[in-house]
Amino acid sequence: MARVTMTVNGKAVAGEVEGRTLLVQFLREGLGLTGTHVGCDTSQCGACVVHMDGAPVKACAVLALDADGAEVRTIEGMASADGTLSPLQQAFQDHHALQCGFCTPGMVMSAAALLAGNPRPSEHEVREYLEGNLCRCTGYHNIVKAIMAASGQGAAIAAE
Amino acid sequence: MPKDSGIGASVKRREDVRFLTGRGRYTDDINLRGQAHVAFLRANVAHGRLRGVDVAAAAAMPGVLRIFTGADFAAVGGLPCGWQVTGRDGQVMKEPRHPVLAAGKVRHVGDPIAAVVAETLEAARDAAEAIVADIEELPAVIDMRGALAAGAPLVHEEAGTNLCFDWGFVEDNRAATDAAIAAAPHVTTLDLVNNRLIPNAMEPRAAVGDYNPATGDSTLYTTSQNPHVIRLLMGAFVLGIPEHKLRVVAPDVGGGFGSKIFHYAEEAFVTFAARALNRPVKWTAQRSESALSDAHGRDHVTRIDLALDREGHFLAIRTRTLANMGAYLSTFAPSVPTYLHGTLMAGNYRTPLIHVGVQAVFTNTVPVDAYRGAGRPEATFQLERVIDKAARELGIDPVEIRRRNFIDRFPYQTPVAVAYDTGNYHATMDKLVAIADLAGFEGRRQASARKGLLRGLGVNCYIEACGIAPSHLVGQLGARAGLYESATVRVNATGGIVVMTGSHSHGQGHETTFPQVIADMIGIPESQVEIVHGDTANTPMGMGTYGSRSLAVGGSAMVRAAGKVIAKAKKIAAHLMEAAEGDITLRDGKFTVAGTDRSVDWGAVCLAAYVPHNYPLAELEPGLEETAFYDPANFTFPAGAYACEVEVDPETGRVVIDRFAAADDFGNVVNPMIVDGQVHGGIGQGIGQALCEGAVYDANGQLVTGSYMDYAMPRADDVPSYVVDHSCATPCTHNPLGVKGCGEAGAIGSPPTVVNAVIDALQRGGHRHVTHIDMPLSPARVWAAIRG
Ligand code: FES
Ligand code: FES
Fold it and tell me: Which CATH number fits domain B18-138+202-255+260-293: 3.40.50.800, 3.20.20.140, 1.10.246.40, 3.90.1170.50?
């Protein structure tokens, strides 16, 4: 067992982990932040995406020890302190971009990372960027639409 | 002006807020004090005799609490099958025992052999690896034809055959159908495969068992679409726990698509082990474990013959299908290729004679059961593919040949038992032609051609039977369950309402849409209505959510219960206003005496019901709470027309879907935004089936596509944006809301659309020899087909 410390959603946290403990396990089981989900065992579904030092990572593919000292943001840290949804989260609700909600935390975290680097992506760029995030419910249409809307390009989606 | 509340409004989903902030509560998010963890040892061969399981070394490992094997479950029941099909020889289906943990033999890769319960998941997994299972490998049957060959190894020796049943429907049509086909001026024949799929809800299955020694109560938290069904099946048939000592909770569930209807071994195991160890016991599937243990879908091999006259009128349809059951009968498996498939073979068309033959086959593969659409996609795919082929052979436009055969009078009695109550297939086709811009296809085709790409157009229709189902009818057909739904409407003293429904939401949005209906009925804000679902402790016995039945059946139960509440409230209002009950009307949350300005508010009536100081106690009980059960009179029959345009690269075989349009008739719609989303999701899955997905076994029964490395899930850049429309609405005639159901339409309608489009592209591109390609239409398959 080894000790890790990191900042999660602005709060300093610490815990004891095994060498094999994954960041997603530390978040879910160690810190009780169960908003980050696990949908696969081959790092392909993206349900576990969080931000580490500002960059999106699959938390199932990062060892907790490797996140020692890092600044981590999870879905629980996306709304403001008074509970107001971020514009991106709000766009997901407005455009019905979630059904069962299981992929949603990862989708929001990936989309936030996309928009941080590319504030006005094309629909094609959004779809390509989401390659690593699977959703079984929505057929992706409304997820793409919500991200376009959050980027201020509400009318740009082809089929609307 | 679009409405902003009530029936017909695109109300934003209230449940989204918790999901968007990471505060959903899925089964794996539940951690009980003192909880132990389970790891299963699963068979790594498809078929073998289990000579012994040596757990000694594993049991001695640190943290291990106990290891269970098949012997521990010898005294409890097997996992039950909920539907008994009778074959055409009058013989009931073969129904071999399905033990919780394998006993005597293993029958598919993934069959659970032993379960380790340990202090930590890591300890459980380490110990599971240390168990030594002595398995004498036996030859396996994977391919269905091979399984039926003389001398094939038997999956279940006691059955004496791998043929589960041989079913014909409608048998009285058999000879006449054969004769009509023999005499027809034109017969189009197609051999096709409906590819085996893994449902892949994004939330892997999970289960937590808990036992309270003080009360003797067991609780199971599980990823289920129908907690009451699980309670009944597991309690009564497997573990022998009466319902009043067993609570099943299905909290937030991350998608189901059918795969979370069924009662699975792992649920029974954690419930059993929690009692045996007197500790909570938790299991969560790894994705690779899901692939080996969630019931798969589809897997039909079919020959279909369509007889036509020279003008393209359908004369008769005959199908012969092999349907894979896998190694055991999953909960509803026998119903899928039979009554959920044969009854839909008329499609949207007048065909006087239809005969459907299905042989269900045991193989050494994961059990196969309902997956989004369940039997109806298989029916639609055959029919809409063979019609396309026939149109081409006869030189008739694919839209025109369909129109020529549309049913246009309702009600319509099909030759396959069901009677459609209502529909308007020309209207949905007209709508499709407009929204898909079929007139612009030729221009787009030429533009594609200039890029060296072959553009094709696929068009088809579909019909489905939803709102399953009238209990007396399904009982005659072999269902061992009733298929009603229930609701309790509880009005609180201050006027707020809690609806407890037996239906379950795992993405469909009940928490938002059900209040829209109640709010409209009473005239109060939706915010005053809360929906409770998913817990047998606080909902009435209900059959759950599948078959696009939540609103058509569960919503009808809720409307009926609310109707009883309103009738009682009117009595109270009449008393309060000293008026005759028959003169009371309810509007906008206010009871009024007709023809006067005397009125009393909803809230005042509710308060009177619970503080009955001024109350007709001699005639009326206090309180305002009613329960209703609704058993549908018929199925509902949503229908529609879909169009798809693809570009095929003849150099690589790569297919890109450029446009997809869907015109559906769902009857009345409560929340159009949610309905659009259901259609999008269904189409996404249908495109996945058509282009990407396929569960592949090798000849030894190893699942080659056991993870997302190999099983191709559709991704955001595999699918286009969709144009969807459900404005052509013919309301259902036999439920109070006039609703039909929309959850499966997209997955039913879209696979043939995509395949029709690809074949059209290749035909137009001069590859005349390509009349069919089996799904998934991967670049390799398309390329190979082009090369002939
Ligand atoms: S759980 Fe991390 S990618 Fe699937
Ligand atoms: S909303 Fe269910 S998986 Fe995306």
Answer: 3.90.1170.50
